[in-house]
Write a structure and sequence with these properties.
Length: 67
């Protein structure tokens, strides 16, 4: 379950990506309610993205583009 402390951050984010979960996960439900694009269950996302790195979330096609 998504920690309640993350919700204010999720509100500020342009989109949401999680390493675990499914379309019925808490993060996906919160993202839908906030009107944010979301990808869940993206393997290795936490090791692929570095702090300060720009990324593009293409939720329509299920892609994360690391710039």
């Amino acid at each position: 379950m998504t920690m309640i402390d993350y919700v204010p951050l999720m509100k500020k984010a342009a989109g949401i990506i999680t390493a675990q979960g499914s379309i019925l996960s808490h993060a996906a439900i919160v993202a839908r309610e906030l009107g944010k694009p979301c990808l869940v269950g993206v393997k290795n996302i936490l090791t692929e993205i570095k702090d300060g790195q720009n990324i593009t979330l293409d939720a329509n096609n299920g892609r994360v583009i690391i710039n």
